[in-house]
Each structure stands twice: as structure tokens, then as C-alpha cells.
Fold these 2 entries.
Entry 1:
Amino acid sequence: MRQKGHEYILIIDFGGQYNQLIARRVRECSVYCEVISYKSITLEQIKELKPEGIIFTGGPQSVYGEGAPTIDKEIFELDIPILGICYGSQLMAHLLGGSVETCKTSEYGKTKTYYNEECALFGALPQEAVSWMSHTDYIAFLPDGFKTAAHTDNCPTAAMYNEERRLYAVQFHPEVNHTENGLKMLDAFLKKVCGCVGDWTMENYAQTAIREIREKVGSGKVLLALSGGVDSSVLAALLSKAVGSQLTCIFVDHGFMRKNEGDEVEAAFSGWDVNFVRVNAKERFMARMRGVSDPETKRRIIGEEFIRVFEEEAKKIGKVDFLAQGTIYPDVIESGSGDAATIKSHHNVGGLPDYVDFKEIIEPLRMLFKDETRKLGQELKLSETLVWRQPFPGPGLAIRIMGEITDEKLQILQDADYIFREEIAKAGLDRSIGQYFAVLTNNRSVGVMGDFRTYDYTLALRAVTTTDFMTADFARIPYEVLESSSARIVNEVKSVNRVVYDVTTKPPATIEWE
Ligand code: XMP
């Protein structure tokens, strides 16, 4: 939905793998945008939306393929600037009477590209630079009125444009980091071609969101399951600013939080105008974990128990009008390109409560990316520890303790993980590494301490770099940091005599061990 009084770019999704990234980049240029599937929007809706500009994404098909994604040709008559990317560029050429053919040599990856400085997208940029290509078709003949704006050694039309009609097309992917100056090209499209000034800021987003929540909620009651993670914490802050004590946050502390974390979450909300309920349910969860060592069983039990505790607390409050969820934009895009029928609800742990009495779900963060959520948290003056918290699985440390969970093992892991986090922070790496934590293996080995033989646990350290958590690389953290972490852990934590570092990527491993 267009934000009242703000610039808006419509990204029409033809199934490309980088559609999220395009949206990220447009917002980096301070222009609000949305990704909508070509199947889910009509020409009439586009006319009503009146976007400042439209971007066609890439897609895996050939424009001549059976059932290839397409769009009503009249879109080019709306006098709205359009930028086609990859498949989107071929579609533009095809629909406007040019021709698309199969390349003799497909281009994939970094490709030297020659740009025409007369084209507004490339004007102030170097005329020769690397772009990121991924195509087997190419634009063989331009539609009438178009000029070539870039070429490569193998591809005569790496970009084309019709200045008068404000139609632009690039065969390469400007949104991908490997395309040198790609962000500047997108910025040029937005600012020079579409005439945007870039009015998307967190300050005005926060104001708009608060106003909209107030309008929607009126005097109703809102309930939120607060996990202490970034999304639910930012949501709590936003709702608290909007409706204050009409909000109740239920924080189920299952006891598998990191060291001190339960208290930190409680402290962070102590000065806020909300009803904050902390349920200390560690004993209950531990009791259900007795004798359980299978990872999936652990996850299932924790999920079920979480919902049960949440429901019991919610019942004490009675009927609420709204249940708030911390769904964010990647969840929305991933589950069907804005196609409302297929959007999943984001559950942090185990699923939606069935028996909580509420009228409607609200998801005020559903248009924000993760880093925007963090910016909003900062804007709302949420504590830094919550804003910069790294991702943490719903079942918590329970799935970082291999085998059966005992109080002793939980204590060992909390202490070791705390030391590792301290060492990472001391080295100034805490905001650059995607996720880092300790895992308590169920393995024991022989060691020597002083003059004595030991037979104690092996602890694993895991640190990964990732952009999307779907794939990940192990972080190349300096040996010195591993050394100090290892030395401190074996000295300060009882029952650990060996520390190893996990050097597997995802895939084939996953980030978590269970
Ligand atoms: P894996 O282990 O699948 O983890 O590579 C990918 C990311 O997801 C997090 N994760 C979870 N987050 N509930 C969550 O909210 C869960 O049950 C869960 N399991 C894994 C994991 O920490 C990593 O960031």
C-alpha cells in the first residue's frame, strides 16, 4: 500500500531470484517500494497507485516460453518511468516490437561492460566497468525509438533506453553488489528519471505507523507474545508508543535464554507504558525435557509448551481485540510475492495459539526489512542490546545442547556462550558477524589440568557470515579471538576441557547444530 504523501516505486515481480534485493536497494536510496507479483496487480490498480516509477524484475523464463510471465502492453502508455532488469528488459523489448533471441554464448557472472554516458542511468559513471550478468537470451533488435545504452563483448544490448518515454532496460543486475556502481544506477533511475527526492525515512515511517495503529486499534486491547528478539521487541516498542497500556506483552521465559537475557528483556521494558507479564516457566519446560535427546522432539515439545503457557496467561487477560505478530517483509515476499492468499504467518515458536480469544491479527512491521526494523527500534529509543540482538532460535539453547538437557549442561553453555560473546564484542566484531554462539556437544574427551587427568565436555564455537540465513559461510574470525575465547572458556567454565571451531558452510551443514 502506498504511504500517504510519500513517493512510491512499484516493483513488478516476474519470479526473479533477486527481487528482494531490488527492493532493499530502492529503499537504500530512501524511496519506499513494494514488490508485487505480475499476477496480483491489474493495470487499473497501477493507475490508481500512481507510482513515481515501475521496475520489472528478472525471471527464470524466456519471453517466448509457454506461459511466460507477461504484462498488459498498455503499461507503457501510462507515462510512468519503467526500468526493466534482465527478464524485465527482454519483456520490454519484446512487448514493444523489438526481438529477443538466444545468445550464442550465455553470459553469467562478472562481465566487462561498456556504458554510454548519454544515458541518464550511467551519465556520471565510468564508461567501462564490471556488471553482473545471468542470461541466455538477449535483445537482438531494439524496439522503435530506443537506443543502445551499454554493450559487452558478447552482448550488443546490455542496456537500452527511450529517453522521451522514460523507458529504460538493463540486461545485467544493478542490484547485485558485483555490479560496480549498480546502486548509483538505480539511484539515477529513481532520482533523475522518476524525479524522486527520497523521502523514506524511519522518522516519518514511525509517525505514520503510530497514527495508523491508533486508527485501527481505537480503544481495543492488543496482545503480543514477546520473545525478546529484535522483531517482537521493536513491535512492542512501536505498539507501546501507539496505544500504551492497551498493550499487554507476554514474555514466556522458557529458561533456555542466553545468560542474563530474561532479565535484560524485562529491564528493557520496565520504563515503558505497557503491561508486561513475564512468566518464569523454566521448571515446566525442564520437566518436559527430561529424557529427551532427539532434536525434532525437543523443538516440538518446546513449541507446544510455549503455546500452552502463552494461552494460560492470555486467558487471565480475557478477550483481546488484536493479536500482534512480528512478521517482517522478507517473510511476506518469500511466501508469495505479495500474493495475499499464500502469505504465511510468521510464528516464532511452534505456531499460533488456537485458543486465544482475539478478533484480528495485526502485523505493523510487515513492510520492513530486518535492518529497517533495527532502524525503527533505534528511532523508538529501544535499548541497544535489544536492537542489535543477533538472531536466536525460538527453542533457544535447548537446541544448542546436544543430547538430554540438564541444569548443569545449561549452566555450562550459558557461561561459555557469554564468554564467547564478550570476546567477539571486545574485538569489535559483534555487528559484522551474522551470528555467533557456543554449542555444548555431548562428547567428552581426556585432558590434563595441572597434574590431573580430566574427562570433560567438548564445546564448539560457531560463527557465520550470511546475508539471508539460507546460505552461510563460517566467519574467518582472527585466531587471537579464538585463542582468548578458548583459554577463558576452559579456565572459567567448569566441565569443559576442549574447545573446537566449526568450519562448515551452510549447506551442507545448517547454522544451528540441531
Ligand atoms: P539453520 O540452523 O536452519 O538456521 O541454518 C537458520 C537461522 O534460523 C534460526 N533458527 C530459528 N529461528 N525459530 C526461530 O525463530 C527456530 O525454531 C529456529 N531454528 C533456527 C537460526 O538461529 C539461524 O539464524
Entry 2:
Amino acid sequence: MPTVYLNGQFLPLEEARVPVLDRGFIFGDGVYEVIPVYSRRPFRLHEHLARLQHSLDAVRLANPHGEAEWTALIERIVAAAEWPDQGVYLQVTRGPAPRDHAFPKVAQATVFVMPMELTAPPEAAVDEGVAAITAADNRWLRCDIKAVSLLANVLLRQLSVDAGCAETLLLRDGFLTEGSASNVFIVRAGTLLAPPKSHLMLPGITYDVVLELAARLGLPCQVRPVTEAELRAADEVWLTSSTKEVLAVTRLDDRPVGDGRPGPRFRRMHAAYQEYKRTVMRGG
Ligand code: PDD
């Protein structure tokens, strides 16, 4: 049973309890992060904490900790867990209060940090690619906030589970936004295309890494809106997230993407990503 952090205490997961009136439970009134950790070294921690600050500001919650405090807390959780590779889940809610939509006058935020085992995507998913479906993006208009109220994402993800697929790619007003729990890139005529950050998608930390690596690899790249037609005609489609890293989508809505195999740019990007991870693990 892993050790977790809850409101100032380190304790076994099974002993961690939150009051039922917590606004995270009642309203989904809270924000979260998932931080990958490789060989016990947090990956892009500063960037994850900066995105947490953005989410907290957006929902008008004060940050309960400064960056140094968060870092110390996360390091302690990571050190206590049994796995070298982890996904550290971190959640801040507006805390317990009598049920009322309006913010409570006095509220004590609930802070929870939990380690989870992180396993790299299976070799078959990397070598063969994965299948995905598309669906209308029916989420709210603040998808840039990493909010714990994930009902729309949960329902959209389940559509792909029901179809035996790895992800649901979301389309809004004829444009690609992202996946139910990942960002999406396409390759078209040798150019990597990435939907621009906006209120319509989560600004992925892996998304930023992939754009940086694309520049290093000299891969032509454009950050601009991607149409549904471009998605459907793409030579390559990629998913990125902290847990999926970079994966190729080789079937979309039951049709092959490109020649139905992970493309050459995906292979270069995947290799570059693995190399970059190794640098981080060595402390670079
Ligand atoms: N989700 N878009 C959505 C809607 C996401 O939920 C995620 C990640 C991403 C990718 O962001 P990043 O590269 O920073 O992981 C994009 C996490 C992993 C989750 O909810 O478990």
C-alpha cells in the first residue's frame, strides 16, 4: 500500500479519508496534475507546477504551497513508493463546506498527493500503433484548466473503450482539439501540425516536449488549427501524454491512417523521446 499525502499528513493510501462534503466530491470543484517520474526523477516538474498554478488561478483557488514546498512533498512521496517509475497524482480541491454552489466564506483546501506505478506503453502499441475513434467535443469551453470534473472526458473515453480503441479524438466546429486524455498531432506532406494552445485544449507538457524535439530533429512544424479533413487525410496521427508518451494512431474510425503502420516521423520522434527521457534519468 503506497504512502500518500493528505492535508499535512503522510499515511498509507487505505487510511486516507476525505469528508463527504468535500467540494471535490460534491461539485468536482478542484484541479489536478499527473507528473511522470523516471528512475525517481520527476519529469518537467517546474512545468507541471506552473500548469497547476494556471489551473488554480483559473478556478480562484490559492496555491496551498510554493514550488519548493511542492517539490519537497513530491520528492518524499516518490522516495517512499516502491516503483522507480511513477505517475504522481496531485489534487487540490476547495475543501469541505455545507453544499452551496457559491464559494464558502472560509474554506480549507484539500491537498492530496498519491504515487501510481507508471509503465511505459506496451511494445506492441509502439510498434503497431493504436486504434482511435472520433467524437464531437462536447466539453465546456475551459479545457485549458486541468479540472477534476472530468465527466465529459470520462464519457468520451468510454466511447473508444466500447469500440475497442485506445483513444477518442475530439472534433469541435470542424477542427481537431485533442484526445479525451491526450493531445493530438498530425503529419501531412512531411510537416508536423499541432493545434494551437487555447481554451479548447489542455496545454500538454508532453506536447511541449514533442514540439521542442521536432525543432531539434529539424522536422518542419506548424502550430495552427487542424481541420477534420486534414486529420482524416493525415499521413500520420500521434497521441501524446505523460502516461502514453508518444504513440502512433494507425487506425482512425476503422480506416487505416497512411499505410496503416507507424510512420517514419513517428519512429524518429519516439526514438528522440526515449533518448530525452534517458537524459532526464541521468539528471541532465
Ligand atoms: N491527462 N489533454 C487531456 C484532456 C489530458 O487529460 C491530458 C493528460 C493531456 C496531455 O497532457 P500531458 O502531456 O501534460 O500529460 C492532454 C493525464 C495524463 C491524466 O488525466 O491522467
